[in-house]
Amino acid sequence: KCGPPTLEEKETATATTKFNDVEEGAELPLNSEEVSSEPPTPSATEDNALSIAPPTPTSTTDEYIWPSIGDLNNRVRRLISTCQRNFKKEEQKLVQKAKKVERREKYEQFVRERERQRLEISQKKWTRKEEQEFYRAVTAYGVDYDRVSKTYNWTKFKSVARLEKKYDDTLTEYFRSFYAMCKRLCGQPLTEEEELCDFPMEMINEERARRALDRINLIVKIREETLNHPRLDERLKGCQISADVPDWWQPGKHDKDLLIGVSKHGLGRTDFYILNDPELSFREIVQKNLLSAVSGSFTTEMLEAAKLETTKTEAAKLDATKVEAAKLDAATTETVKTNAKSDVDKT
């Protein structure tokens, strides 16, 4: 029989071992005093053997019985089936999660694509207000062009024109088309690159086109050539006072600050941007004029207050004179009436 011995077999083997030990002890006693001269009788030997016989087990149990091969095979099959079911469940969960992620990614991609198309349409389609703001900014501020990198810097231009939503590439393409249109209206020759510019925009008249070209070229020349000239300070020393500048104008110093201010702020609202720029010397003139204006206004207010007080005093005197005259007239009238009444009574 395969497998470990059962409990019954173990107990039987133990009892047999003890019985054999007893029989051997009976044949060979350890103490010499117990040795009898007479050999033991067969009946006595049988009684002793019966008295030490192992007890038979009263109950049997299958607790420690090793399962059969069929039971083990069934157990293994159930374990494998359970593992496979759990694995399939986890695999299905992963597949469902992957499908959800894929659907979410497709939806987000669809939303991004629609947003991109909408932005492209909005970039190509300019409203009338945006075109007017562009014309105002390009004639007042001009454009910042870097000849080294051959690119336009639209950061300040966007804030001036309030066109923050437009891309740099869109503004570059629009400006090139606008500049080519102005040159075409003014009868100036176009380059090969300008001939290819066909950005859709509203046409303007020749006068506005010429004004835009003059402003753009002037500001570009100041930024790229005049301020970068190595002998600028030397040439500004030769500037002289003229009739179109105020008395406080210092030739050379204020002329350079004017060029820097135009390059920095453009030609729009120079009385606000250039005059109040803390980096230019015009701010000192503003502060001095402000102090003198405040003191002058204070003196004027005092004179006006004194005049007003004098006027009030004269008016009060005139009113008092009128009241006294009215009282005198009333008294005279009352006297005349009294005299007339007395004459009537006498009659």
UniProtKB/TrEMBL annotation:
Biased composition regions of type Low complexity, renumbered to the chain: 32-46
GO molecular function, one term: helicase activity
Signal peptide (UniProt feature, chain positions): none
Keywords attached to this entry: ATP-binding, DNA-binding, Helicase, Hydrolase, Nucleotide-binding
Segments traversing the membrane: none
Pfam families referenced in this protein's UniProt entry, alphabetically: HTH_CHD6-9
InterPro entries cross-referenced by the UniProt entry: CHD, HTH_CHD6-9
Residue segments, region Disordered: 1-65
The UniProt record lists the keyword Repressor: no
Occurrences of domain Chromodomain-helicase-DNA-binding protein 6-9 tri-helical (ranges): 103-200
Protein name: Chromodomain-helicase-DNA-binding protein 7
Organism field: Melanaphis sacchari
